[in-house]
Amino acid sequence: MIRLSLALATALALAAPANGALADAQELAAWRLAVRLNGVEDYRAFLAKHPSGNFAAFAHNRIAAAEGPRPAAPLVSAPLAPPSDPGADPAAAAPRFDLSPGQRMAARDGLRARGFEPGPGEGEFDDAARAAISSWQAASGFPPTGALTEAEYDELTAAPLSGALPAGAPMTARLDPGTEGGRAAAEAALFYGPEELAEIEMRLARAGFAPGEADGTLDEAAREAIRAFRFSRGLVAHGFFDRPAVDLLMRATASWPGPVAARK
Fold first, then answer.
1. How many other C-beta atoms lie within 10 A of the C-beta of residue 125?
2. Is this structure's pTM higher than 0.70?
């Protein structure tokens, strides 16, 4: 298994950075290889290369199913915040959102894709990364604090076409193609297969909707469940899914790691 995991990691490392259809094809090939090997380290290697990819949530689910539930963090009473200082650093006053190493990589990828260079770092955000975040926030209609809130992280990573558009309208409204054909094409561009579609149906059922049999076909009942879920979350109400809808569904059913567990 170690040899297979190293082979996967090597294949991912050698894949040249690419954009558009080639990047999608590379991610799909890497995901199918990870699924075939089905080891925790294989999924981690996939996430190292595609931390915000279309299959990232599925990879996290398989790892979580293998490792089991984590103990709940102890409750800690937060101290009262001191009065705001007009001259204080705005980043320090921003709502705190602790990003994992993978999320910081995804945020950097999102900044680069939108033309805001965060520098070569991979760990905690340095001055160059904070400056890039501030510039993107200002261009996107957010307060330029240099520190990402959870909503800003979602905007930066889950909406690859949003760019620096003003954030006055909901993210999915700005991205919605507006036609059934366009929505179907956007859904197909995620390249989810029957296994991923079946998991989406299972999660819709766990979220309280009725998609019918979880067979990965997305029939009329499943489409109606998707429409109802989207409406319940304030998204554009139609029967197709996109990355923001899938991400919200994963969060809504986060207590269930999924139907497939990776091998440890």
1. 21
2. no
